[in-house]
Amino acid sequence: PQLWVISPLVNIENMSSQVESGVLLEKVGRVGVITMNRPKVLNALNLTMIRQIYPQLKKWDGDSETDMVIIKGTGGKAFCAGGDIRADTGKAGSSLSEIFFREEYILNNAIGTCRKPYIAIIDGITMGGGVGLSVHGRFRVATEKTMFAMPETAIGLFPDVGGGHFLPRLRGKLGLFLALTGFRLKGRDVMRAGVATHFVESKKVPEMENELVDLKSPSTENISKLLDSYQDQSQLDAEKPFVLESHISDIDRLFSSSSVEGIVGNLRADGSEFANKQLETLSKMSPTSLKITHKQLQYGASLSLQDVLVMEYRLSQACMRGCDFYEGVRAVLVDKDQNPKWNPSSLEEVSDQSVEKCFSSLGQKDLIL
Ligand SMILES: *[C@@H]1O[C@H](CO)[C@@H](O)[C@H](O)[C@H]1NC(C)=O
Ligand SMILES: *[C@@H]1O[C@H](CO)[C@@H](O)[C@H](O)[C@H]1NC(C)=O
């Protein structure tokens, strides 16, 4: 296919006749500001944008005139709803995805290793590729408009962009649950889950940004204190419990298994309304994606971000060699019948060897960080 957008929320009809620059890069005082600027497609991240952000971030990272980096999105709806790896007509899809994932993960690593405080204001939809642009940075500020998800198992992929690093580090089995089911977290819950470091009401964000810019040679601690003070002034939904609060022990128990079949077995045996709902969700996902994701998080729990990204690059290329990704994009984004025909179609048919093979070295084509 010529059209690949890794976000179930992006309307691909809006992709044509884009005139804006996909990303704005500017210096405000001593702050480097990255603004995702494709509001019509929920600020989806494409290769051009990656190639603009990466060198600028590296420059700011090593620049004595820059105190911090802020990344945000325009349009009021999204921070960034995912990756956009549309192939230009005529270009071979395979080589584009080889390049796209490589450069995207290199950018994710640059964010994770940035020495300047990196503050992602995730005021809106933040999924997939958008998570990779935020979660590895030192500070992530969620608002009541934040909607977080890693929905990749629904399109025959896996939660990449370093998902194998941050997800297994969330409490208990929460990360594995989010990874397998694509569960959407909203607002304050994004912070409660540990994906965001702060929660600040959306209307307070412009003032918070101004105060960040006004800080004189700030330490990380100064920035942290400032964000804390904005969080303290943001009482919205403070009384509302965490959406998964009453299920967190169920999640830890039901999602503790050395295999996806084991998890499905736990859910079946449990029979509660919550368990049945998760079973139904998992039954719609690519069986291959579920098994890859389970192993990805298992390995990722004890790997550095760099080693996780090398692993994920191998997985991304394995998914491009398989067929579920193309079928997932067709069913969710192109034909929109929401009825993908996965191959293999059941967990039992996905062998351990076929999963393990996805993790094997690409030799000369491995990602080098
Ligand atoms: C990325 O998006 C920008 C803005 O819409 C556009 O100008 C650019 O051509 C796109 N790049 C690719 C590779 O699609
Ligand atoms: C910034 O933090 C340092 C310690 O890291 C502290 O000494 C200083 O007073 C703080 N500055 C402001 C403006 O809060």
From TrEMBL:
<dbReference type="InterPro" id="IPR032259">
    <property type="entry name" value="HIBYL-CoA-H"/>
</dbReference>
<comment type="function">
    <text>Hydrolyzes 3-hydroxyisobutyryl-CoA (HIBYL-CoA), a saline catabolite. Has high activity toward isobutyryl-CoA. Could be an isobutyryl-CoA dehydrogenase that functions in valine catabolism. Also hydrolyzes 3-hydroxypropanoyl-CoA.</text>
</comment>
<dbReference type="GO" id="GO:0005739">
    <property type="term" value="C:mitochondrion"/>
</dbReference>
<dbReference type="GO" id="GO:0006574">
    <property type="term" value="P:L-valine catabolic process"/>
</dbReference>
<protein>
    <recommendedName>
        <fullName>3-hydroxyisobutyryl-CoA hydrolase</fullName>
        <ecNumber>3.1.2.4</ecNumber>
    </recommendedName>
</protein>
<keyword id="KW-0101">Branched-chain amino acid catabolism</keyword>
<keyword id="KW-0378">Hydrolase</keyword>
<comment type="similarity">
    <text>Belongs to the enoyl-CoA hydratase/isomerase family.</text>
</comment>
<dbReference type="InterPro" id="IPR029045">
    <property type="entry name" value="ClpP/crotonase-like_dom_sf"/>
</dbReference>
<comment type="pathway">
    <text>Amino-acid degradation; L-valine degradation.</text>
</comment>
<feature type="domain" description="Enoyl-CoA hydratase/isomerase">
    <location>
        <begin position="31"/>
        <end position="359"/>
    </location>
</feature>
<dbReference type="Pfam" id="PF16113">
    <property type="entry name" value="ECH_2"/>
</dbReference>
<dbReference type="InterPro" id="IPR045004">
    <property type="entry name" value="ECH_dom"/>
</dbReference>
<keyword id="KW-0496">Mitochondrion</keyword>
<dbReference type="GO" id="GO:0003860">
    <property type="term" value="F:3-hydroxyisobutyryl-CoA hydrolase activity"/>
</dbReference>
